Amino acid sequence: MSQATLPLPTEAAPAAKRGASTFSRVMRYTLVRSVALFATVVVGVYLTILIANMGGEVDKIRKAFIRDNVALSFMGDRQFQQLPREERERIIAEIITVEEHRLGLDRPFLLRSFGFLGQALSLNLGRADLLTSDSGSSQVRLILLERLPPTLLLFATANFLNFFLSIFMALGLSRRYGSFLDRAVIALAPTSAAPGWFYGLFLIIIFAAVLGLLPFGGLVAAPPPKEPLAYALSVLKHLTLPVLALVLSTIFLTIYSWRTFFLIYSSEDYVEMAKAKGLPSGTIERRYILRPTLPTIITTFALSLIALWQGAVVLETVFNWPGLGRLLFQAIGLYDTAIIVGSTVIYAYLLALTVFVLDFVYALVDPRVKVGGEGAKV
Asked: Where in the chain is the domain with CATH 1.10.3720?
């Protein structure tokens, strides 16, 4: 019998079968989870479309804008003013009708909402009513994609700093239980109830208005530096205050919560046994204290991340940060429905992606968790 036709060893066949079963289980779970999250996004976006129209009031406002713009466009036309009144009214009415048809305002809103939902999910929302991008484009997709990188830069930087600083300081406080620093963090934990923009106001007053060390807001100096290094340093300088505001709004409560988890796990019997065996303190913290608490830590971190996404509107407005939050604030004031819905779609996708990735992070940090397994945690 040739080597190609030899049967698999008895150990290899079950291993291959388990591998195929694991792959199919993960793929099935990924598909089901993706469909469920996408359905949640669809429902949330459609509710946003209904709310953003305010029961048809926004349509009335947009029609009024059209009538005013058409009337203003003919105000300085002397030839038009010489026409009979009936002729002028007929021309204006025809232009208004064409414009309302172009925007779909001649159909009931509920009928338009379903088509608008499909366009929103693909960010194919046409042109904004009043807002434009920095390049002058009124395409909603270009406006949103232009504002997305600053938001990701701000919140990614703040959350990475908050995560690693909190773990480092919480581990340190668990070793120094009852120390002055430990009591200070406990006393400062309630300050995390204030949102980031609240701290942002005080930081602007202290470091920008009084000391003049940092800029009041914005992404980069005006005019922007031409050299890449100078441009990066300018962005870093403008990024300092909003990042610090976000970190201050969450770090003390996060340190207090995680320090409590570390204290609970450090009193377990297996930790005492590891100490009795003479294992180094760093090894004990990594293997027997930090790793068992990571699922809980990651959960609380993900929930705080979702809360920070929702607070982006006010924070970016306070710091004049050119991100999605400030764009959404401007769109709400101008009744620009396409921008409002498009911003909500991006936030919904970001939140769904956070929840989706969280399930797989559980499986990486905790070997007891099997993605899609029966009775598993995810």
From this structure: 147-335
Q: 9 φ, ψ to 5°?
A: -60, 155
CA 38 to chain centre: 16
The pTM score is 0.71
Placement of tokens 């300050």 in the chain: 191
Cβ-based neighbours of 37, under 8 Å, separated by 6 or more: 352, 355, 356
Picking from 349, 169, 184, 180, the residue whose alpha carbon sits closest to that of residue 247 is: 169
10 burial type by CB count under 10 A (0-12 exposed, 13-18 middle, 19+ buried): exposed
Per-residue pLDDT tens over the stretch 324-347? 888 888 888 887 878 888 888 888
Alpha helices in 206-336 (DSSP H): 228-248, 251-266, 269-276, 281-284, 291-310, 312-318, 324-334
Rounded to whole angstroms, the maximal C-alpha distance in the chain is 103
pLDDT in tens, 29-72: 778 888 888 888 888 888 877 777 766 677 777 777 788 777 77
List, for residues 236-294, the tens digit of each pLDDT value: 999 999 999 988 888 888 888 888 888 877 777 777 777 777 777 777 777 777 777 77
CATH class of 147-335: mainly alpha
Paired strand residues for 139:
127
**90 φ/ψ angles, rounded to the nearest 5 degrees:** -65, -45
Residues 268, 275: contact at Cβ < 8 Å? no
